[in-house]
């Protein structure tokens, strides 16, 4: 099996939780994809980095990140996967709000101003979190080249309607789930 198949197995075995849950969007579902069980797993995290890099290999960007918390381990995995490839990328974290102390930065990590960046998320239902990150990145002077998520729960149309290319490593159908 390759990285894509191996990661799908980690997701279906560890991250898909059955039972009634309320999503961050406010919607209710009979199952939940808890990707932190995979993005923070010692064997799965390197797979995430490679799968997401492969998914976006034809997009030119030099930094990757998104709204904390879901995007953080995805960006870190991609940062590590890019080391030694000749196409290294930096990672950044977008806070939900700017800090009221210190440097009062909303985007932590290397400066994104004037850089081509990729916005990522672990999973997205409405696109709200990743579009919040995109807005902050644009305000900081970054050029957002696209949005990539590990699992799409339905945000694709919303993100594309906002004028951004959108890719997902897996759809719900890929995981044997229905919306």
From TrEMBL:
Keyword match Transferase: yes
Pfam families: Pribosyltran
Domain (Phosphoribosyltransferase): residue spans on this chain: 90-156
Recorded catalytic activity of this chain's protein: orotidine 5'-phosphate + diphosphate = orotate + 5-phospho-alpha-D-ribose 1-diphosphate
Assembly mode: Homodimer.
HAMAP family: PyrE
Record-given protein name: Orotate phosphoribosyltransferase
Taxonomic lineage of the native organism: Bacteria, Bacillati, Actinomycetota, Actinomycetes, Micromonosporales
